[in-house]
Amino acid sequence: MSRAPLLPAVKAETTLGVLGGGQLGRMFVHAAQQMGYFTAVLDPDPSSPAGRVSHHHIQTDYLDPQGLAELARLCVAVTTEFENVPAQALAQLAATRPVAPAASAVAIAQDRAREKAHFVACGVPCAPYAVIDTAEQLAAVDEALLPGILKTARLGYDGKGQVRVKTREELNAAWAGLKQVPCVLEKMLPLASECSVIVARGADGAMVNFPVQRNLHREGILAVTEVYEGNLPAAVAEQAVAAAKSVATGLGYVGVLCVEFFVLTDGSLVVNEIAPRPHNSGHYTLDGCDLSQFDLQVRAMVGLPLVQPRLHSPSILLNLLGDLWFAPGSDEAVTPPWDQVLALPGTHLHLYGKLEAKRARKMGHLNITGATPEAVRAVALQAAALLGLEPF
Ligand code: ATP
Ligand code: MG
User: Fold this and answer.
1) Residue from 116, 149, 165 whose mutation best tests the ligand 1 pocket (most atoms within 8 A of CB)
2) Distances (CA, A) of 197 to 81, 201, 273, 288, 293
3) How far apart are CA 353 and CA 15, in angstroms?
4) Where do the TM regions start and end (predicted)?
5) Residue 168: which H helix or E strand, with range?
6) Does residue 272 have its Cβ closer than 6 Å to ligand 1?
7) Total-model pTM
8) Ligand nearest to the CA of 165
9) Distance from residue 220's CA to the centre of ligand 2 (Å)
10) Angle between helices 87-94 and 65-74 (to 10 degrees)
């Protein structure tokens, strides 16, 4: 379906909507406003990071019919920042407004079993797995999947809803512990590293991509992303981009999509999961690329041209979790040494305006850009040391 792009109007508000008011919504709002759009955020939390910076903030539940009707009334197009938004909410909005990504794509990303079936259908290898919906399926699990990770099919993030299991007994106990909700059991793979690729695809099928991001996770949460020539073997990077594009094409996807991968110790590449939205590992694009992932989210949803983004500086992202606001080993509140961090060249501090720091909560990120991979790594390691983060 081709349609005229939805550009901001003069003498009238042209408003773009986003479901979800977290930091991804906030950065979407910033990008949309930079282009002259007004914004509307739907999120029940009165102090949500995106709601606080948006022209309109509808404070209802995601399935509230009046909240959704108000969003549709205000907005010329709607996107999401949050994959656990009920797919029905997107479907309801799509009856009257362009919605990107579509409910059907979000529904697949919400469910690990459907997601894996999609990878198989696209011919992109993923970890060997079994779907566990019933006690019979649990009993029939192939021993070859152990040791493995039992993951809830729905609603997991940052390693939540996951249990590592070595034996059949541990697997049985873990499923009981997860209240016997639908799960997938994945074989534990020997990881050499992790990476992700972010693509943006338009309604006309045009697709562009950011370079491959090398990601380091700690305790199941993204800690560091490094992006520069040579961050991964060239053949792996090429394969990852091709795989991400086939996953997006297979979904008929419109919008920004992130595909996460494992690189195994034998050098092979395995897809992990997708996020139907901009991704934490793409926040470096705000400072390291000539277009950010949020710029492309705006363009894709309104039908403006998608241009291949260019990484103009080797970049490293350090995630800033709430732990940094506590003195080591105590509950005493502290302020991280921003003055020292910002004295380092090429540092860009992004804080999400969250009013309470909690351990493991994503409070912000620090982007570091430099002239060379060596230079950016040297500064990033200094910043990490100042913040008390482990070297990488
Ligand atoms: P996210 O916040 O990215 O949505 P999540 O909670 O959905 O995270 P996963 O991405 O499935 O979780 O897993 C979190 C991390 O656990 C991975 O980044 C990886 O480090 C590790 N992991 C997950 N599955 C496997 C596996 N099959 N083999 C080895 N390690 C794994
Ligand atoms: Mg993940």
Assistant:
1) 149
2) 17, 13, 11, 15, 11
3) 23
4) none
5) helix 168-177
6) yes
7) 0.96
8) 1
9) 8
10) 50
Q: Specify the residue with its C-alpha closest to ligand 1, atom 16.
A: 220
Q: How many residues does the chain have?
A: 392
- Write the pLDDT tens digit of every residue in 104-120: 999 999 999 999 999 99
Alpha-carbon distance of 353 to 29, in angstroms, equals 14
Angle subtended at Cα 280 by Cα 178 and Cα 80, rounded to the nearest 5 degrees: 80
Q: How far apart are CA 121 and CA 139, in angstroms?
A: 26
Q: Alpha carbon of 47 to those of 34, 55, 189, 333, 354: distances in Å?
A: 22, 14, 40, 21, 8
- For the chain, what is the radius of gyration of the CA atoms? 21
Per-residue pLDDT of 201-244, as tens digits, reads 999 999 999 999 999 999 989 999 999 999 999 999 999 999 99
CA distance 198 to 293: 8
Q: What is the whole-number distance in angstroms between the Cα of residue 291 and the centre of ligand 2?
A: 24
User: Does residue 213's CB lie within 6 angstroms of at least one atom of ligand 1?
Assistant: no
Using CA atoms, how far apart are residues 157 and 174, in angstroms rounded to an integer?
18
